[in-house]
Amino acid sequence: MTRFKIPRWPFYFLKWMLGITLAGAVLGAIIFPLVGLIFETGYTPSQLVMNGVKTLGFFFGIWAPGTALVLTVKKVYEAKKAGDLPEEETSESSA
Q1: Rounded to whole angstroms, how far apart are CA atoms 92 and 83?
Q2: CA distance readout (Å), 72 to 6, 27, 40
Q3: Whole-number Å distance between alpha carbons of 76 and 82
Q4: Potential cystine with 72: which of 12, 35, 61, 66 (Cβ 3.0-4.6 Å)?
Q5: Is the dihedral of CA 48, 50, 54, 59 positive or negative?
Q6: How far is the C-alpha of 87 from the C-alpha of 7, rounded, in Å?
Q7: What is the pLDDT along the chain (95 residues), one digit of tens a residue?
């Protein structure tokens, strides 16, 4: 009886995607208030933080899936090439 093994690549993908989106939100929370205060936009700092989180989080979220897919394929390919993946996770295994 063989035990079902969960492949690692979905976790790599989610890690990259969430990390990229979170990085955008954090950058937006830092950059928007600084620029807003420099140019005296008339918004409160909390409004600027929320606008930054929403705007840059959205923009980074648009690019995150594609970037995460490329980085995941690269990581799995390199692990497969180095022989670090078990046979069940490679596409060459036969059922």
Answers
A1: 13
A2: 16, 23, 42
A3: 10
A4: 12
A5: positive
A6: 11
A7: 677 888 888 999 999 999 999 999 999 999 999 999 999 889 999 999 999 999 999 999 999 999 999 999 999 899 888 887 665 555 554 44
